[in-house]
Amino acid sequence: LAKRFLGLEKNIWIEFSALAIAHKAVNVGQGFIDYAPPHYFIDLYKETLDDPNILLHQYTRGYGHRRLVDAISNVYSPYFNRKIDPLNEVLITGGAYPSLFNCIHAFVNPGDEVILIEPFFDCYEPMVRSAGGIPRCIALKPKPESTHADCSSSSDWILDKKELESLFNPRTRLILTNTPNNPVGKVFTQEELEHIACLCQKHDVICISDEVYEWIVYDENKKHIRMSTLPNMWERTLTIGSAGKTFSSTGLKLGWTIGPSNLVRGCQIVHQDCVYTCPTISQEVVARCFEYELKRLNSPECYFNYISKELLEKRDKLVQVLKECGMKPVIPDGGYFILADFSEFGDQFQSDADDMKDFKFVRHLTKEKQLATIPVTGFYTADDRHLAENYIRFCFAKKDETLDKAIEILRKLK
Ligand code: PMP
Ligand code: GLN
């Protein structure tokens, strides 16, 4: 193995998805919706397959199928308050994963520092390390009073301004932000994002803004704010989206990066000799899905507007049961995950040199109780892991049947 990948062998999705399958566990761990996508999705898929006018079996434009980049430009331009140039300001990739990879590898030189906010979507750290970058981390800290309550809110998880400022220095190349956040579900406020934006400008840092959960926000008062739309931030922000999240179809494996042409150019260069082009069929289907939604963006029927309504009931149902059984849930403002503090259950599990307490607890739940969840220390770097050893993550984007089975197991835990 090339040296730059040494130390990056472990992966929580590989381990815990296999474990869930091996033990036939109810899977409320991995983040995917296990029920039907929006009603038009299958129809548009079939319609695309039957369309004789498109060469679905051949390569399409390397940086993104023309119909898809046009659709993305048409849908997103109003949200970015500018006309997005479909050919130079959008890059289509094989999901938010490769978008992140392209952005990081396009701009990080060995020794460059990259600021990560913990807990972060786990692949950020290995992507930075394999590029030769050095992660510099700041952890969101739950307000002390919130940790004693039987439940708390993702908005109680706070970024310390002074600590964040202290991480910026002449070696800082990038900061990665993720709002709504996976795994806490925090929706960053305007003030928090403005503070980050201000530091990026002061220190000439690029922001990679992972916004894959952009449409999933529960509180009317906490709107999703795009980093790119803050003053002077378009020039230094790359925004990442995912068709898997947008259309609740993670198997599509399509994502996009939107940003100024000079930065998108860097991502194109990484992409062109690695992937070159993404599957034509998925791109054509996603283009048609966007075109379908474009006609009704402001109506409540638009999937982007009702997905949160559909998920809210599921969130509240799981929160209620977690409270009842003594796992203190952190109620998310966005995304489809809930962190739960399992301190009351975990006495027989302790962190040691090989393994963290939450990993042991999750393995126990999966193997002995057939309930699959995700350990939260997987979203931290080694130095900060202790901060999250009492938390596990649940995904509530599941059909009622799955949630009910999970709830039945949870009720019997105590
Ligand atoms: N970023 C975040 C925050 C995620 O939760 C995920 C998982 N869906 C990804 C990126 C990767 O998304 P994709 O499946 O489109 O590669
Ligand atoms: N993003 C999803 C999650 O956080 C899935 C990640 C994965 O399966 N690799 O659960």
CATH class of the largest domain: Alpha Beta
Number of helices, counting only DSSP H or I runs of 4 residues or more: 14
Beta content? 15-25%
Taking pLDDT < 50 over at least 5 consecutive residues as the criterion, the unreliable ranges are none
Q: Helix-strand pattern, N to C?
A: HEHHEHEHEEHEEHEHEEHEHHHEEHEEEH
Mean of the pLDDT scores? 96
* Largest sheet report: 7 strands, mixed
How far apart are the first and last residues' alpha carbons, in Å? 45 Å
From the structure provided, what is the oligomeric state, counting identical versus distinct chains? single chain
Bound molecules: 4'-deoxy-4'-aminopyridoxal-5'-phosphate, glutamine
CATH architecture of the largest domain: 3-Layer(aba) Sandwich
Rg over C-alpha atoms, rounded to the nearest angstrom? 21 Å
The fold-level CATH name of the largest domain is: Aspartate Aminotransferase, domain 2
Q: How many structural domains are formed by the residues?
A: 2
Spatial order of strands in the largest sheet: 2-11-10-9-8-3-4
Structural class: alpha/beta
Write down how many β-strands occur, each being a DSSP E stretch of 2 or more residues.
Answer: 16
